[in-house]
Amino acid sequence: MTGSPASADAIHGPDTDSGPADDFDPADDLPAEALELAGTNINAQTYLATDYLNHFNEIVMFLEMIPDMPDMFEDAKAWAPKSYADHFRESSFKDKALAIRAYEAAPPRYRRMFDRTVGRMNEQLVGGLARIDAAISSGNTSELTFLVQQVSRSTQRLIDVCSSIIHGNVRTMSQTQIDETLAF
Asked: Which one of 46, 57, 74, 80 has the largest count of C-beta atoms within 10 Å of its C-beta?
């Protein structure tokens, strides 16, 4: 939830106190790291930033151009997995040092799911790029179009999952949903 404060219920649970709400400040119980995140594009609940997803959005953009412009595959091949910290070290993100520190302090509930999803996305992209390269080499344009669509769509679904985690919307996927997301 970049830029918008978390609701009191999301931080503390539903209000059960019958006392006056005037003196309630949801920031009172937040760790110091979360207080630093106010006014940044780093989620104060999860300590994660959507800017990292730009690394994956870029490869999806290249993939979608390949069927019409096969030369774009050279740019796509230059893509490689990049850690969260490396992404921010190399970015022009205003709060990059804070983003790295926040990630390292991220609540395990979000960080584990986020890292697992990013790992799946990296594996999927590396394997998908190898299959796309083979389709280009063989000249099989229908296979190329099919592979590009599959890799692009499944990566976009995983980007959406990561975005949801970054915004604090943790939901467990069924094995069928995971299989459908990763299938291509």
From this structure: 46
Q: Give pLDDT tens digits for 121-148.
A: 999 999 999 999 999 999 999 999 999 9
Full-model pTM = 0.75
- Is 50:41 a contact under the CB 8 Å cutoff? yes
Q: What would the two tokens of residue 119 be?
A: 């790992």
Alpha carbon distance 116, 1 (integer Å) = 20
Instruction: Tell me the average pLDDT of the chain.
Output: 80
Q: Which residues of 115-154 are buried (b: 16+ CB within 10 A; e: fewer)?
A: bebbebbbebbeebbebbeebbeeeeeeebeebbebbbeb
Residue 152 near residue 64 (C-beta atoms within 8 A): yes
Extents of the domains making up the chain: 8-182
* CA pseudo-torsion sign 176, 84, 122, 65: positive
Kindly report, residue by residue over 156-173, the tens digit of the pLDDT: 999 999 999 999 987 655
Which residue carries 């019409």 as its tokens?
A: 68
Burial of residue 163 (number of CB atoms within 10 Å: 0-12, 13-18, 19+): middle
